[in-house]
Amino acid sequence: MATTSAAAGLLGRQLKQMQSDKDIPGISCGLADNNIFEWEVMLMINDDCKFYGGGFFRARLSFPPEYPLLPPKMKFETPIFHPNIYPSGEVCISILHPPEDDKYGYESAAERWSPVQSPETILISVISMLSSPNDESPANVDAAKMWREDPKGFRRKCQKLVRESLGDE
Fold this sequence. Notes:
- The chain has 4 helices and 4 strands.
- It is α+β, with helices and mostly antiparallel strands.
- It has one domain.
- It has a 4-stranded antiparallel beta sheet.
- The model has no long low-confidence stretch (mean pLDDT 89).
């Protein structure tokens, strides 16, 4: 129980910091269901991102009671098509993988979660990932294949999702 209350205290401080920090443009966070372990996140993607620029994407961060020793899970609630996001919306990015050696030898332990990460570093990494997909170990094989073989089609599909995220379709 002490771990859970320590995690809750840390998450409360991190949420307050992110809500008052004006240096992180395009990220808005709040509690989901009044639960400190469930955050609602809104990512407003700037126009520099050629795939998702101008989009508003809702996601959820779900923190385990062992946080910050173990990473949260992140899941997009707004539909998104990306090589590193499962069709279910769950994000697959190195820093959200538990801090252990990768049994497949793809990632080093240094690339994975560590307690120095924070919700802010996760969200900044996810925004960066949206601009630069890693198609070497895709979570969404169809998206990775389209990104490699039909970049214009990939971009059109992403821009359609951006319009839908704005309620334009």
